[in-house]
TrEMBL record:
Residues 167-319 form the PurM-like C-terminal domain. InterPro entries: HypE (IPR011854), PurM-like_C_dom (IPR010918), PurM-like_C_sf (IPR036676), PurM-like_N (IPR016188), PurM-like_N_sf (IPR036921). This is Hydrogenase expression/formation protein HypE. Pfam families: AIRS (PF00586), AIRS_C (PF02769). Belongs to the HypE family. GO terms for biological process: protein maturation. It comes from the Bacteria.
């Protein structure tokens, strides 16, 4: 019997790790068509299509957050930030427009819906990203879980930055503390009573990325936002696509005390936890100081730091240097904290 007949889709297949990538490669890449630029087969943050002497950048994202309200944000803020940030990761920091499709469960409180829409409106204004069209559907009770959102973003860019541009000697910068979003959602979902102010980092970072691109120019060679799969997932993608190894200096990683404590409590490494307001940026070593200074001058990049470097050895591998020794950093199979974005 064909074993595929018995296979079922699990939560891990939508969680940004190895299992999701395998599903996409096995099933969805059959939809890919040749384009003049970056298309579906590149598995980047979006598509980039040549239009005259510029690039049309397009991305789409669906959002299934549970709970829909959490410390620091909500599903509406994620829907705008996630799409704007995916455009920015391709080098398109000035969105032309956003679309929004909303699927609502029968019985969902209207007051909560209006609260989500208000959050979307405020975040779109913050990002300079106007909504231009959308769609609404209502499903029967129990046919969908509360509220699901899909947003698509369109922008123009003079230069596209893919996630595949690393070469040996390049440095990697993370724009701030890691693991904040996933840990904040997890803590609210499970009502964990943790000390401190554990809040999501969800924010549109197109202005922050614009500053980095202005400072580094063509020496900014790869970008990706560490959402599902966290920083570890991003590094594995960048290493594999760039044909390089990556060495991470673990002591230099910015981690908030609340995130570190939560991670130790439940046994989850912050490197594996999603972020919604951060970027990992690959830059030629000669321009790293300029890019770092530009990031730190922006309110969302005050804790930006160089935390890793690309090497010629061990292509595709990610190596964690703890300061006491080295070990391989495994790629996540699936998201340890599902339904967080």
């Amino acid at each position: 019997m064909d074993t595929k007949v018995q296979q079922k889709i699990g939560l891990k297949h939508g969680s940004g790790g190895r299992a999701m990538r395998q599903l996409i490669e096995d099933v969805f890449l059959s939809l890919a068509s040749p384009v003049d630029g970056i298309g579906l087969s590149a598995l980047d943050d979006g598509a980039a299509i040549r239009v005259g002497d510029r690039w049309l950048v397009i991305t789409t994202d669906s959002h299934v957050v549970h709970p829909i309200f959490f410390p620091g944000g909500d599903i509406g803020r994620i829907s705008v930030s996630g799409t704007v940030n995916d455009l920015a990761m391709m080098g398109a920091t000035e969105p032309v427009g956003l679309t929004c499709a909303v699927i609502i469960e029968e019985g969902f409180p209207r007051a909560d819906l209006e609260r989500v829409v208000a959050s979307m409106r405020e975040t779109a204004k913050e990002a300079g990203a106007p909504f231009v069209t959308g769609d609404t559907k209502v499903m029967g009770k129990g046919q969908v879980d509360g509220l699901l959102l899909n947003t698509t973003g369109v922008a123009l860019a003079d230069r596209v930055v893919s996630d595949a541009g690393l070469r040996a000697g390049d440095l990697l910068v993370v724009t701030g503390s890691i693991g904040d979003h996933g840990m904040a959602v997890m803590a609210r979902r499970h009502d964990l009573r943790l000390e401190g102010d554990l809040r999501s980092d969800v924010a549109p970072i197109n202005g922050l990325v614009r500053a980095a691109l202005a400072a580094g120019g063509e020496d900014v060679v790869a970008m990706k936002d560490p959402t599902r799969g966290g920083v570890a997932g991003v590094l594995h993608e960048m290493a594999a696509k760039g044909g390089v190894g990556i060495v991470v200096d673990e002591p230099s990683l910015p981690v908030n005390d609340e995130v570190r404590a939560a991670g130790e409590m439940i046994g989850i490494d912050p490197l594996l936890v999603a972020n919604e307001g951060k970027a990992v940026i690959g830059v030629r070593a000669r321009s790293a100081d300029k890019v770092l200074a530009a990031l730190r001058a922006h309110p969302l990049g005050a804790r930006a730091t160089v935390f890793a470097r690309a090497i010629a050895e061990r292509p595709g591998a990610v190596i964690l240097d703890t300061g006491f020794g080295r070990r391989m950093l495994a790629e996540p199979e699936g998201e340890l904290l599902p339904r967080i974005c």
